Amino acid sequence: MPFFYGWVIVGCAICAAFARQGAAVATLSVFVEPMCRDFGWSRTALSGAVSLGGVLAAFISPVVGAIVDRRGAGVVLALGALVVGGAALALSQTTSLLWFYVAFSIGRMTFASPFDIGISGSIASWFRRYRAQAMSYVNVGASVGLAAMPMIAHIAMTDGGWPAGWIALGISVIAIGALPAALLMHRRPEDVGLMPDGAVVLEGAVGADGGLSEVPPEPQFSRGEALRTPALWLLVAYTAFIFPVQAGISLHQAPNIIQQGLSATVAATVVTTFSLAATVAGLGFGFAARRIPVRFLLAGTAALMTFSAVAMVDIGSATQAYAAGIIFGGGIGGLLTLLPVAWADYFGRDHFGAIRGVTLPVQVVAQAAGPLIAGALYDLSGSYQLSLNLFCGLGCVAVVLALLARPPARAA
Predict the structure, then answer these.
(1) Is 201 a member of any domain?
(2) Is the pLDDT score of 411 beyond 60?
(3) Residue 357 sits in a domain of what CATH number?
């Protein structure tokens, strides 16, 4: 069978997913202690920049989604890498909280909207049968980036302080993220004479291998049709409950570990450990999605993140910290692999960008709320116990919502 160009698209998406992590809250977490110490900022004040970036992303998401549908993901991802890299370089020159807010919120806005819609939209357009598998490979790149970026910053900070950490991140993001997307990506396989998955015939007819395709007819929901289905609103509600847990723990896990008496090196390596766990889990969930309904797997990811919140309340040793990080990483790996697949499988690829453009604001606002809530509760109580208990409750609700989110009746 000839090589399918869609795997080149996957490679470009992997590079973009890696570069994107320069603005991840887990990467920011290694800057929390030194920057708050140097400038006298509270955790709430610093966390607000993450929240502001999420709010900005919510405003631009409908426009980004329409651009991805019309022009493709390549230009969006290339410009996104330049913006995130430039924001990191600007953060190395931080002299005030206002400067930090402007630079980080722009980078976070790009992380939360153009990167998210561009990466998931490219995979949704090029794959159907192998969509979850392809997305799991992309999330390997994301997880490796999430493991590498905090360590890149931590190593640079050892000699040059936090400004050197931001410079190292900026250079890494621009070098890895921009060129592949600009030069190699195409909007859809049909634009270059191909079909999703490299198939010769779609919709259950005889495939390239002479056997019957295992892929059922693809749903064709417009944005308006999708908005009238219960499935969409259940997925939106799932998003609203699980992403505060994902973002809140991601940003504050390193300070939480340090507060409980462990070293900064242990905290940084726990961030790396959970990222590596997310890599393995993403692959596992991606292959499992070919056999298990995605709603059950989404419930499993929420359960893992709930267990991790419980485990992080009282960490007495490095071993416990690493164990909690591994559980959390397993949940994140599944979440980031499966949720884009659920949107594409439930509603189709023709209007994927438009549908994600109007639903993604809930995700980015939820991601913005998590760190802010955790920071505020820390400043109020002097520990992260209240926020971790809250995240445990939110995760339990998300498990139920995922189980209720059955695929909608297919639009003709």
Answers:
(1) no
(2) no
(3) 1.20.1250.20
